[in-house]
Amino acid sequence: MPEPRFRSRTYRRITKKLPGGDHVIHYAKRKPGVAKCAKCGASLKGIPRERPYKMQILGKSKKRNERPYGGNLCSKCSRQLIKKEARQ
Q1: 26 & 49 share domain
Q2: Are residues 47 and 87 in the same domain?
Q3: 17, β-bridge pairs
């Protein structure tokens, strides 16, 4: 029987096959939800869904889009905001 902390579905169950042919279950934390746009709530493209310890390893340009408001607003909302600022 697994340890009590692994009995809930907080941890993801991964079946691994060992060299001898046996199967074992490894437990891993689940990935976080997808990043959302601050204005409209749409999912942000190009933002990885990773645990914080994996995000630390990634470079800055891999964590967010290289445009104004990248990683905060979706392309549609950022385009609207830039147009609005230019018109004022």
Answers
A1: no
A2: yes
A3: 23
